[in-house]
Amino acid sequence: MSMDRLIERIIELKNPTVAGLDPKLDYIPDFIKEYVVAEYGNTMQAAAKALFHFNKGLIKALCDVVPAIKPQCAYYEMYGFYGMEALHDTIAYAKENGMYVITDGKRNDIGTTMQAYATAHLGETQLFDGKKAAAFDGDALTVNGYLGSDGIKPLLDICKTYDKGIFALVKTSNPSSGELQDRLLDGKPVYEVMGEMCEQWGEEQRGKYGYSSVGAVVGATYPEQLTTLREKLPHTFFLVPGYGAQGGGAKDVAGAFKDGIGAVVNSSRGIMCAYQKMGMDGRDYAQAARLEAIRMRDDINSVL
């Protein structure tokens, strides 16, 4: 079971965190930019190569500390097919180094279109003469379940066939999330109804730790709701954004856990840009990221 693999890596490293790889060119040290521009010119290809070079350094420095990465598709798509190559290569390099990969695409569609998204990011694509090949091959994918079951059921088949997982948006960390998610539906907040649907969708795919292949995205910026949802969704593993740069702290994420497991907490800018915050030379960006990842691990473990 996909979530079992993530949980076992978390237990092995004693670290319930994930590094978000959402690189902007502003985050990338000058020595990398200079190298790729000299090789490829001031082009989309050079920018995409810079992303991958940056990510490789981070993955190499983090793979024995952090159990997972979470690349956000948008930061790669903006560089066209070169950027998508960088996403593919980032995922492959992370998996080669033993990391679990959560592809952050927040895909949202129905029927065969959702099946195509699921195939692209989690499954294998049909080629000629019966041959199949994986396009991106992440371990899990973030999805938007607000189209209802039509948008989730195609994913469940892929998860079962290829041992993959999904994280559905439930209570997101952004400031305006309450405009919809906090509204009452039959006396319950919409986010709670969505959480209950995650429990139902995952009923037939539960692993040995009790968590299903259907996880939930629940933000650290709303700690009371996070704690409530943990109690109400005993079989749903949480992906928790909002730690660090968005304002969430260790005490805010503590409610996502039960007996030390049950969630993985994301930090993106805090890890990627640690060298800038620490005033370190850009050539030491990977070491700075490692130091920040260790600090984050210890901070969260202190409240569990």
Automatic annotation (TrEMBL):
Pathway: Pyrimidine metabolism; UMP biosynthesis via de novo pathway; UMP from orotate: step 2/2. Pfam families: OMPdecase. Residues 16-278 form the Orotidine 5'-phosphate decarboxylase domain. InterPro entries: Aldolase_TIM (IPR013785), OMPdecase_AS (IPR018089), OMPdecase_type-2 (IPR011995), OMPdeCOase_dom (IPR001754), RibuloseP-bd_barrel (IPR011060). SMART domains: OMPdecase. One of its GO terms (molecular function) is orotidine-5'-phosphate decarboxylase activity. PANTHER family: OROTIDINE 5'-PHOSPHATE DECARBOXYLASE. This is Orotidine 5'-phosphate decarboxylase. The gene is pyrF.
